[in-house]
Amino acid sequence: MAVKRHVAAVGPHKGTAPTAASRGRGVGAAIRRWPLAVPYLLGSLLLVIVPLALAAALAFTDYFGFRPPEFTGADNLVRLAGDRAFWDAVGVSAVIAVIVVPLRLFLAVGAALLLARPRGARTAVGRAAAYLPSAIPDAAWALLWLWILNPLYGPLPAVLGALGVADPGFLTTPWGARAGLVLVMALQVGEAFIVALAARAAIPNRLYEAIELEGGSAWFAMTRVTLPLMAPIVLVLAVRDIVVVVQNAFVPAMLVTDGGPANATLTAPLLIYRRAFEYGELGYASTLSVTLLVLTGVAAALPLWLAARLAARQRTRA
Length: 318
Description:
This protein has one domain (51-61, 73-317): MetI-like (MetI-like fold), CATH 1.10.3720. Helix 4 (84-114) crosses helix 8. The protein is mainly alpha-helical. The chain has helices at residues 2-10, 20-58, 75-81, 84-114, 121-135, 138-148, 155-162, 174-186, 190-201, 205-213, 218-248, 250-257, 268-278, 282-317, and strands at residues 61-62, 70-71. The longest helix is centred in the N-terminal third of the chain and has 39 residues, at 20-58.
């Protein structure tokens, strides 16, 4: 089939073996580019690696900020094992991530597919609307949703009441508050939308022309060409969104629901913030931070592991 030949043509091509001269030129170009990476490397060192190393060191201390840290060995880890409040907060973060991450991917990829073809001002307005929520600061976005979800004068409960739908209690019931948190976080997909839009634009038009010549439907084009070619990018977005959702749940959980009601929206970052800055337990908060980092890394690795398993299964079938 012509479509299969065109899709195969999109893949990587094997060229001639590089000569010693070309390898030398490549090494020289790489050396000349290294100074360009110095600002990024310095920023990563000062803003990521050094704070992470300090947090890992403080995780084994008793530190309140008013006297030097006191090394306590594995005491914080023993306390962590029995800290039900922290593990409950991890569970809340996991529930929100399981709901929000697929929803964000669906909205970002769906908007990218709908707005991929330029259609004048409508496309420009649609792309701007898809990106706009991500351009709003997180605190302002959370306060906007605090007004939208307000059970007394918020527009969303008022609209649902006018339609005869019972108020889900966005700020007053446990699962209603979690649903409100999902709404706050699900619509900020601007970065993922831009990446998905670029991935869709990178697919050659000749593939779709071949599908039209073969009499293929739009559904065939989307399921057999568009989505498979975009799958690696969607996988990267899934890994990114897992990290973003777990970490960025702090702002809406603090400003919209304050972790309530009954700790139903008390996410792990909010709990760590309270341990560190309300109770002054900086050493134990460092233990919680490092633990959350490890758990987030494991969760982010799951999509990569599943993708590797599926790819291996497909290769064995082939």
